[in-house]
Amino acid sequence: MAYGHGAGPTRRSLAFGAGALYAWAHAPRFAQATTGRDPRLLVVILRGALDGLSAVAPIGDPAYRGLRESIALEAGGANPALPLDGFFYLHPAMRETARLFRERKLSVVHAVATPYRDRSHFDGQDVLESGTPRPGASRTGWLNRLAAHLPAGRALGRGEGQAGNPGAGGLAIGASTPLILRGPAPVLAWYPSDLPAATATLFDRMEQIYAHTDPKLAQALDRAIETDRMASEAGIGANLNTRTQPHVQAARSIATGAARFLVRPDGPRVAALSFDGFDTHAHTGGASGRLADLLQALDAALQAFEVELAPVWRDTAIVVTTEFGRAARLNGTLGTDHGNGTIALLAGGAIAGGRMITDWPGLRENQLYERRDLMPTLDLRAVLKGVAMDLLGASDAALSRDVFPGTEHLPPVRGLIV
């Protein structure tokens, strides 16, 4: 592994209201025993394929400007990119992200990708979330399997807290469970509603009915009530209605809600959150424009995580990733088509930050994948394995066999966690 150098958007395209959080109210006892931490792991998926060459621009590469033409970022001028190491520059919309990098609470992984190479959103997200080498290979997600295959922990929510007992159960903010969290670990759903709040007596009557007619539904209702209680105590409610909010405030609100669940002593410890809208085929924009708006929203979300997770920030790792990158060349509609290599961001107090982690392949035509995409030189699964091992104490054997099956040949990237 080489470490490198020390038209306006529509409401639909800025679909941050489609964010979803899923988590388990378990703190693995082994993690505290082996690392002395009470860790939080949050995976943020940017759906639509983030343009990594615009988010973290290799301005120092001599081929960069020729490929990017009118959307190329500049190190100087009226709205300059933010320097990371003199070769790579962060998009100017991401000032809080740049601050985290300077404070060594964020690192950038560049020229990274899953094993998938065929540029379909559906299949790319399947591989990203399943942790398998090809689409359709698993009906469960790697984050769920990670939780399920860890040694027995203690439940931090309501419940007996015995091995195999979910306690308060899983937690979901969103309308459905994505593949990354499908599997044996339990998942609950919670999402803000415009409907009037139900009364406690209604819940009591429903519990009594279900207890005699459908025990499984009664158990699900009990968990839902517990989730609603946690949300109410955390102050998460009507202000999280993202359908009527501008995209930056929507992203900040979703991140705030997620963090308030995670920071609770009886709250979840492992979570996944998704933001939509990164399929920038047309009118991407350079220092300003459509992608800049999306990145500004992501920047606001990272800041909200830092603020709301302050009591547990030192034990928190956030992984920001996407299904694949964009083509290296600007297309005819001033956007970028589906590609391969991209970036991942690692943020949090537990991250060994301030680093560009990359084996940079270069941007000359003969250095591009199929002469069109940034060449992936690092497998995202190696990064995820390294985080899981050093933050959670997961074993390499379990990660290679069960969480990311078939990766015995793929060593984890170590040293990502302080």
TrEMBL record:
Q: InterPro entries, alphabetically? A: Alkaline_phosphatase_core_sf, DUF1501
* Classification via SUPFAM superfamilies: Alkaline phosphatase-like
Highest rank taxon of the organism? Bacteria
User: Coiled-coil stretches, from where to where?
Assistant: none
Q: What is this protein called?
A: DUF1501 domain-containing protein
